[in-house]
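Reopening this ticket.

The earlier resolution said the output was attached, but the attachment link was broken on my side. Pasting everything inline this time so it's all in one place.
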Amino acid sequence: MQSYMVGNNDIAQMLALLHELQGIDFIRQLRLITERREFSPLATDPEIFIVGGETSEDYSPLLNAARKAVEMGNRVFILPNPKGCRTADYIFERKGVYKMFDLKTISGRHSVDNRLSESVGQTNRVLLHMTADYNPGTLARTIKRYFELNANAREVLVYKGKKQISVTRKSLEDTHFFRTFIRRYTK
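Inline output:
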């Protein structure tokens, strides 16, 4: 039996095990988590799946960003928050590709730095849901700095209105990254 099958009886164990897995084992574990029968689709949003109730104080921002992710073509699994384990907020599935994201809703003018640093150690992908006006140049520099300070970072996904901007290490290598990011963010 492969190591990614460990903890298959308890979703909290399965989520904790993600911190030890890499590559294909990590992806398999994400898929196994989404297949658990604890997840049920929301009656109002059948492409959004939850475990348990809708009582968390974080539920409303989680649901709002999940709805945007569905508009972008994803099935979204809102993850439970087990005690004693730092976990991300979502697993996105799109065309058989699984990715885990930590949500950071940005509602203030100077909060991206702090919010991104909170994600270090939870997952290597962050979703910034922009609900406030934010200077696009400052945002681009902050995202670049996040990648420089976090060797494990793979993607920062930015949702602003109906726009989705994916920033990866490869996109940062483009000499026109800042210009391209600012144009896409403000267009």
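Reporter confirms the inline version is readable. The first strand starts at residue 39 and ends at 41. The chain has seven helices and eight strands.
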